[in-house]
Amino acid sequence: MSKKIQESKKMQDNKTPDAFAFPKAWTLFGPVGKDDPEPEFAGMTAIPKELTVAGKKLAGQTAAFTDHRLDLGALLGGKAEGKTAYLLAAIEVNKATEVEFGAGADWWMKWWVNGVVVCDTMALGNGNWPPSVLDHRFTARLKSGSNLVAVKAVSGSGGFLLAAGGPGGVEYTLVIKGGTVVDTDPPERNLPIYRRDHCRQNEQRYVEVERFISDTVVEY
User: Fold this and answer.
1) The model's pTM
2) Rounded to whole angstroms, what are the CA distances from 83 to 33, 64, 77, 87, 125?
3) In a 3-state reduction of DSSP, which class is residue 197?
4) 187 and 156 share one domain
5) Domain match, 175 and 92 both
6) Quick check: 61 and 28 in contact, CB under 8 A?
7) Which contiguous run of DSSP H or E holds residue 204?
8) I need a surface site. Which of 32, 82, 92, 200 has the fewest CB within 10 A?
């Protein structure tokens, strides 16, 4: 079977500076309870050595995503519904800009950028399982210099997993057969399947999926 390799544009566009990259290193704090009072991130400009939640001082530990996923249960003694962790990271950019993130959680999450809430699924949960970087897409305004990103991740009954990425951090190859997105390389288990056909909505969603996750398109 012949393959046609077509280079598509990088996920970075005119709104995203070349210097931007999704953080590789995060500082993890927890566990705490889902309903414990949330830390005040509005005045926080740097990652603290300790994070105080409900009067409890939490020491940070380094955590890193593997294939855009972070198994918080493995780092915090297992899953338990309502078990909560906070993740903090710094993003450096050379000019003020708007960037796009994608994230999903098993089962709840909340994101702040420079103290501003940019994504919140605490009321209804993730909606999809297993979680994927394509579950919830949202934009954030970054200022020139250092930007503090904070995430509240809450375990569901089935797992304690966070999936996340963004421009410079989510890199897949789309595999297309007969105009249908059938897979990615590396595999993305929760990839929506969309056809390029006469349905305008499907066509637009296909373009969005392609733009967000793909550096290369492989067509059969």
Assistant:
1) 0.74
2) 5, 19, 10, 14, 14
3) coil
4) no
5) no
6) yes
7) helix 200-213
8) 200
